[in-house]
Amino acid sequence: MNHSGLRRLIAALGLAVMLSAAADSKAGFFYDQNFPDTDWLTLDTEHFRIYYYAEVEWTAQMMAKYAEIAYPKITGLFDYPLEEKIHIIIRDQEDYANGFAAPNFDRITAWATPLYSILRGRQEWIPDMFTHEFTHIVSLKANMWKSEGAIVVVGQGLVEDGVHNIDFGASVTIGWNTPFFWSEGIAEYGTHLAGFNWWTTARDMHQRMSMLEDNYLEYDQMFNRSSLGTRFDGERGYQQGYTMGLYVMERYGKEQWAQLALNSGAKGHLMWEKNFEDVLGLDGQSLFDGYLKWMKDRYQRQVAPIR
Predict the structure, then answer these.
(1) Of all helices (H) and strands (E), which one includes residue 172?
(2) Mind listing the pLDDT tens digit for each residue in 144-165?
């Protein structure tokens, strides 16, 4: 079996396990409820297939335009062209706005209603949101060692004692996780390089006060989003990952923040931090210390005239 066939087999096994595990859940992975009255339409471009309905056709057309603009910029950043089309689902049935990516499913779900965050400022919704999620797709696929899908080990058996027949089974999913600050930071950074995201004054205000008041996330706090207590801390993870990418670009080169994914895909380090040593020549804590000094120096220069 060739490498492409092996990757597809592993991804299919992972999908089967995840679907079986979710079969009894009350909420589906992509939808919290069914919408049987929705008449879905499709729009195909060179690299994407977009699913939409009549009421969001304008959004679908804009998505098709900006998706193809973003494709060469993001796949070029990682030197990682995709073998398959990415499926984009546009929805607007709920009072909600967001977007998310599922790399193992080759799928992006996007809400037509724009999301505005006072902690980030304003960007044009469709190109900014789509490119962020598409960067997730490409970066996390590039990051995976051996396969774009998870590696799954499944065991099952039947015990019969003449009275009780017991069917049992177990599965173990093995994957290569990425630090929260890098996975979200690279998505912000990729969107920045594509020209659809920028360092707004709202972001600058948030980070400036975090740095000047020593209220930033420490290095070990940035790895796991679920351990962060408040929305402000979660946003700090996004923004510190974004600005760390800008720091790496200035210090080591534009491609190096993305090169971490390719190194991970090639070497499969169980400790993801090893990629910093391979690509940048220093450990993660030393990288963070240099970044922190860079950020603090910047903001201290800004406030010096008024202190």
Answers:
(1) strand 165-174
(2) 886 555 454 555 555 566 565 5
